[in-house]
Amino acid sequence: MAIDKAMRDEVQAYIAKDDLTGEDPEVRRVAINALGNHAGTVVVMDPMTGRVYSMVNQEWALRRGFKPCSTIKLVTGVAGLSENAIPAVDTVGDGYRIDLTSALAHSDNYFFQTVGTKIGSDKMVSYARELGLGEKTGINVPFEFPGKLPEVKPGIVERRMFSHADGFAVTPLQLGTLVSAMANGGKLLVPQIAHSAREANKMGVKVRRQLPITTDVWQRMVPGMVGAVNYGTARKSYDPTQTVAGKTGTCIGDGGWVGLFTSYAPLANPRLAVVVIAQGTDGRRHFPTAVAGEIYRQLNHRFGTAINLQVASTLDDEEKEVADAEAAADAAADGETTETSNGETTPAATATATPVTTTPAAPAAAKPATPEPRNTVKRVLMPLEKKPVEAPKSNNQSNTTTKTPATVTPGTEQRPRRIQP
Questions:
Q1: Strand, coil or helix: what is 235?
Q2: Do 81 and 213 fall into the same domain?
Q3: Is the same domain home to 41 and 60?
Q4: pLDDT tens by residue, 108-142
Q5: Taking residues 363-390, what's their average pLDDT?
Q6: Is the pLDDT of residue 78 over 60?
Q7: How far apart are CA 353 and CA 376, in angstroms?
Q8: Secondary structure of residue 6 in the 3-state scheme
Q9: 76, 84, 242, 381: which has the fewest C-beta neighbours closer than 10 Å?
């Protein structure tokens, strides 16, 4: 269509005028390639420090307001949990049963309209303002658009405010600081761009404010955001090598269709927050999620989770089943790696983590008793209930003298081995 072509040409003209000072060359190259010749903008930043790695189409990223569509459900969810409008079992409605995780993953409008009606328009706007909407982020770049909050009319509740974001206008950078606060535990950061090497050396983390949101609220939002990527509306952003958490949005704004995706990854150790907004035809069919997914995959070698990064200190029931299945598969593949070259297992190898030694004549057979570390990043972070890990059963025939604790560091855990008589 002619309108789409004109919009895409406009975006390319804006990108050509971007100020590249302080931009990370690799991140910008990946972001530009992922966006391609489409009408959109990309913001990539560090959710823990506020450093902006790249803003592609800075005119849209900083100075244009967009209807946030269903990304506003992040605000509705936080407000609903904080105001106890979402019960502990995460269900709402009369005869309409759905939990918060599914509602976020599948972007259920009725769920969030019901929650929003319970908390009211005034509190909804108050939480949105607290989360950084309707005000400038404070980035060290001039002419930033502050966004817009809905006008609350006494006695009138606009249900679409809570699900479709009627009355809101946000910048991509505002969504970036919002999702960064969710990633870092509630710190609303001031985004920063290093315009020189000297400025980069002096740059420190600037916290605009610590949000008065409990840890439990942040924790309960995570499974739905992960679910959106793994099996919900944001499947196009899925990265098999790390866990991405995010929320999509698609609706008709002032300039036609608008599509949004705000996200962060890796879940266990957030390194990137990625926001993508597109307009026109490019705003439909969750195109922004595909752009973000490509960015995460291309930058995984630099910002992804290290394969031996340990995260979980305890496992819930589902994770324990998965871990047991993986352990059994690894044991079969390893072929009992704790056996010595003559086929016998020493008690000392069972009692401690000391590597098994071999004779000098066969140096190739020397192997540590512990198999190579696996990626132990939790599938779903922070379960609602934590159960203690059961202590491994003791081997009555073992000659070990060291008592094994109930919980050990995941990276050095030894599987109990049966000693051959």
A1: helix
A2: yes
A3: yes
A4: 999 999 999 999 999 999 999 999 999 999 999 99
A5: 43
A6: yes
A7: 19
A8: helix
A9: 84
